[in-house]
Design goal:
mainly alpha; 5 helices; about 60% helix; about 170 residues; single chain
């Protein structure tokens, strides 16, 4: 058996939040949770509407926002029924698909770190859950913040490595 590699990935806060978002949404799409891909449809429509009218929800543009939303819901229900075999009010979740579970675990670890970073841990929310076991077959990801002094050193080291490659 080949040795498994372990990677260290350094991200900005925004990159980490986008990675968390992507892991959460993709895990839900794999599980057939239709509201997730309906959000993407609505977002695309709202972006086009804003480009055309200057407003995200203009009821006079392209059939209007409410009509688009009903159409998106109908499309998603059909997709869900056809490909996942689920009725409108049913969905799959944890343990439906290992890839989705691993992605959701990554999201859970990142989400909890963002919760700790906010500083106010007196309010219990879904992100206050400190994952102690994984849903998927991979171990939980490990996240740690880089101190500002270490961040500067890493930045300088990265700059030096780039210069050496040239």
């Amino acid at each position: 058996m080949a040795q498994e590699h372990i990677y260290n990935l350094q991200l900005t806060e925004r990159q980490a939040k986008l990675l968390s978002y992507a892991c959460d949404r993709l895990s839900r799409i794999i599980e057939g949770q239709d509201w997730t891909y309906r959000e993407f449809m609505e977002g695309a429509w709202e972006k086009r509407c804003k480009e055309a009218t200057g407003k995200m929800m203009d009821d006079s543009w392209d059939g209007g926002w409410h009509n688009m939303r009903h159409e998106a819901e109908a499309i998603c229900k059909n997709i869900k029924k056809r490909f996942w075999g689920c009725e409108a009010n049913a969905l799959y979740g944890i343990h439906y698909d290992d890839t989705a579970d691993i992605l959701f675990d990554i999201h859970r670890v990142l989400r909890h770190q963002f919760y700790k970073d906010r500083g106010d841990t007196s309010i219990a929310t879904v992100d206050s859950e400190n994952p102690t076991s994984s849903m998927g077959t991979e171990p939980l990801a490990i996240i740690s913040k880089i101190k500002s002094d270490d961040r500067r050193k890493l930045s300088l080291r990265g700059k030096k490595e780039k210069e050496e490659q040239l």
